[in-house]
């Protein structure tokens, strides 16, 4: 199928996956608007979150042809749950604010704009392989991405009669600054090379898939069974609910 979108807005395009995908979309011939914040500024997300409706109103007036929004910003920090005295609740809340609540707020703000269009539109969420199988060393990050993946399923079903498609991009660990808490030299060697990931992500988007799972850890077959079984069970539950 041909890619139906012409103008991609990438949220969280300062560096890493967001920046790489923005560059690749441009190379593909799409119009791209890229916005983002440095990771250290994401800690102050509560105030910007209150400004999201104004941000969306401003950017959609400036770029009324936006038809795909990639919501990509994220924050990952480790926590040792066996040492409760070291667990920072403020850091846990911040990860939920950045990775989940700000994305929901942006989604709510963009939907009315997309509803008014007569052409295909889409919201794409960057979740994680840890949405399905959590990493115990990053428990709050894993939980935020699981929440976002669950939200994407519910949103997709809720919008089934609308012109807005819901896409989910589920990356493995990728060699970006997301892992800088491990030390820059070590953290940026963790996971799939960024170029390889970006190639596979772009191929997934252009293929028309609404759930793009890349590089699951081995055994990949078992991991993908978890993903497929969850999706099938969700669809069964949704049908059952709608039948009553």
TrEMBL record:
Transmembrane segments: none annotated. It comes from the Eukaryota. InterPro entries: NAD(P)-bd_dom_sf, Sc_DH/Rdtase_CS, SDR_fam. The keyword Oxidoreductase applies. Pfam families: adh_short. Keywords: NADP, Oxidoreductase. The keyword Oxidoreductase applies. Belongs to the short-chain dehydrogenases/reductases (SDR) family. This is Short-chain dehydrogenase/oxidoreductase. The lineage of its organism: Eukaryota, Fungi, Dikarya, Ascomycota, Pezizomycotina.
């Amino acid at each position: 199928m041909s890619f139906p979108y012409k103008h991609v807005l990438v949220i969280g395009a300062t560096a890493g996956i967001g920046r790489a995908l923005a560059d690749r979309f441009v190379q593909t011939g799409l119009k791209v608007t890229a916005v983002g914040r440095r990771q250290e500024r994401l800690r102050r997300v509560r105030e910007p979150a209150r400004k999201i409706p104004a941000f969306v109103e401003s950017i959609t007036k400036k770029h009324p042809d936006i038809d795909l929004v990639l919501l990509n910003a994220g924050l990952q920090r480790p926590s040792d749950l066996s040492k409760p005295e070291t667990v920072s609740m403020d850091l846990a809340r911040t990860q939920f604010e950045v990775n989940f609540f700000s994305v929901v707020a942006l989604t709510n703000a963009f939907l009315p704009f997309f509803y008014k269009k007569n052409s295909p539109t889409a919201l794409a969420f960057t979740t994680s392989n840890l949405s399905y199988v959590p990493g115990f060393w990053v428990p709050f990050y894993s939980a935020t991405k699981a929440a976002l993946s669950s939200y994407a399923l519910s949103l997709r079903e809720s919008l089934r009669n609308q012109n807005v498609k819901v896409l989910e991009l589920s990356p493995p660990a990728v060699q970006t600054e997301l892992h800088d808490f491990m030390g820059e030299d070590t953290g940026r060697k963790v996971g799939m090379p960024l170029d390889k990931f970006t190639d596979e992500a772009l191929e997934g988007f252009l293929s028309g898939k609404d759930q793009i799972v890349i590089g699951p850890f081995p055994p990949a077959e078992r991991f993908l069974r978890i993903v497929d079984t969850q999706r099938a069970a969700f669809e069964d539950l949704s049908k059952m609910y709608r039948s009553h």
